[in-house]
Design goal:
single chain; 449 residues; alpha+beta; 6-stranded mixed β-sheet; two-stranded antiparallel ribbon; 17 helices; 8 strands
């Protein structure tokens, strides 16, 4: 009982000394007015930029110069070049200064190399013409063969008109310019703000003036007329599927060898002065755009429309006649074997397969192939170095088809072989460096025996 009483006393005393617990309280952090002001200022700047993105416009105007250059190369050459005003014109004006005073050319350089072959002389040269490379690319897209090792597409040239026909890409520029003007009139009609309209008019005027330089036509179609009516082959070389054969049927057709050669004459003095003036005007245009503060979304829409049109013109393949090189399709020869295709091409179009076989087969041939091409080279040398009348009754005969000389091979006969044997001492032989020389000497010995 004593122990229990002592314990109760201790419990009573303990309860008397304990304090009631207080509820926990949350401490509020002090406010930082400087940090709140920074967040509000940043949000205000972002909102104002989205309302009037004038700073973005000045940045966009200095990108995409190569796109504008390719669009001009596609549509230039005529009296009116509808390349719409876009963001890349300021950048292009400075790139034009570099190319005019450096390379001496306005046309863009070739990206994908190709080879141009003269079937008359057999000479093959690298093609430096941007317009010929773009024409080859367009024909490759339109004449894609199915399960063919080689496809030889034959075209006949028509008279060159020294202008750009109005295809849908040409009309897209006209329509884009009209839509740009319509979009720029809206701020003036709503708020009487003529700034966007004036900037758009000045940009369109400078863009249209940049395509009127005579240097574009000089570089694009600067070639002599082909009075010899030569047949040319355009290909990317061994390993590619396509060969484009162009038969110049009129004396007004362009000499493609002149087009394929690199430009060495440079730009004229007037072209250099014009490039400097255009660069200064585009700098002034950039300053005017940077001062625009209101309704800049309309100007941004104008630039985006022009950029879409420029990209479409620079990227989309065009027909040869739309590029100033009118062609008429004749036939297409293709097959699973490259050698068989070249032999069929040589049978239908003499000297064409002979010029191509050295590109696609730089090595040795089988005995049958060597004999076939040795005979064709003998016939070509006989035709090019002898009078046509000497071989009229033996191997080669001339006929006039549609005002042009075409070559038809006649089958051998007894009188033909006699005439060949009689004329054998005067027939020009292939040089010792020719791949057909050993077989030719054996054939000549058999004919003289």
């Amino acid at each position: 009982m004593t122990v229990l009483s002592f314990r109760l006393l201790l419990l009573y005393l303990l309860l008397q000394h304990l304090q009631p617990c207080e509820a926990p309280t949350l401490r509020v952090l002090p406010r930082y007015p400087i940090l709140e002001d920074q967040w509000e200022a940043a949000a205000s700047r972002i909102a104002s930029q989205w309302q009037n993105p004038n700073d973005v416009l000045t940045v966009l105007l200095i990108i995409g110069g190569d796109i504008v250059q390719k669009a001009l190369a596609q549509l230039s050459g005529g009296r009116f070049v509808p390349v719409a005003f876009s963001f890349g014109w300021v950048s292009y004006s400075f790139n034009a200064l570099l190319t005019v005073f450096g390379d001496g050319a306005l046309m863009p350089p070739t990206i994908h190399p190709s080879i141009l072959v003269n079937t008359r002389s057999g000479y093959a040269r690298l093609n430096y013409s941007w317009i010929l490379n773009r024409m080859l690319r367009g024909l490759e897209h339109s004449l894609e063969p199915l399960d063919a090792a080689l496809c030889v597409s034959v075209f006949r040239s028509r008279p060159h008109n020294n202008s750009n026909p109005r295809d849908w890409l040409w009309w897209s520029g006209v329509i884009t310019i009209l839509v740009q003007l319509t979009l720029a009139i809206i701020p003036y009609a709503i708020n009487s703000d003529w700034t966007i309209l004036s900037v758009t008019l000045s940009g369109i005027g400078l863009a249209l003036s940049g395509g009127l330089l005579p240097q574009w036509r000089k570089e694009k179609w600067g070639a002599r007329p082909d009075s010899k009516k030569t047949t040319f082959c355009l290909t990317r070389g061994n390993g590619f599927q396509h060969v484009v054969v162009i038969q110049n049927q009129t004396s007004d057709s362009l000499n493609l060898e002149d087009l394929a050669m690199p430009r060495r004459d440079g730009c004229s003095r007037s072209c250099k002065v014009a490039a400097i003036v255009f660069a200064l005007l585009w700098i002034a245009f950039l300053i005017n755009v940077a001062s625009t503060r209101n309704n800049t979304w309309y100007l941004l829409g104008v630039g985006f429309l022009g950029m879409i049109q420029n990209i479409s013109v620079a990227a989309v393949p065009r027909r040869p006649d739309a590029m100033g090189l009118p062609l008429e399709f004749v036939t297409k020869i293709q097959g699973p074997k490259v050698m068989a295709v070249l032999m069929n091409t040589e049978r239908q179009f003499p000297f064409v397969g002979l010029a191509l076989v050295k590109i696609f087969f730089p090595g040795d041939f089988s005995p049958a192939e060597r004999q076939f091409w040795a005979n064709k080279e003998t016939e070509k040398m006989a035709f090019t170095r002898q009078e046509p009348a000497v071989f009229h009754s033996s191997i080669v005969s001339l006929s006039n088809v549609q005002g042009s000389h075409s070559i038809s091979l006649q089958p051998f006969s007894a009188s033909a072989s006699t005439g060949l044997a009689a004329a054998a001492p005067t027939v020009a032989q292939p040089p010792p460096t020719s791949p057909f020389y050993p077989m030719h000497t054996k054939l000549a010995r058999r004919q003289t025996m």
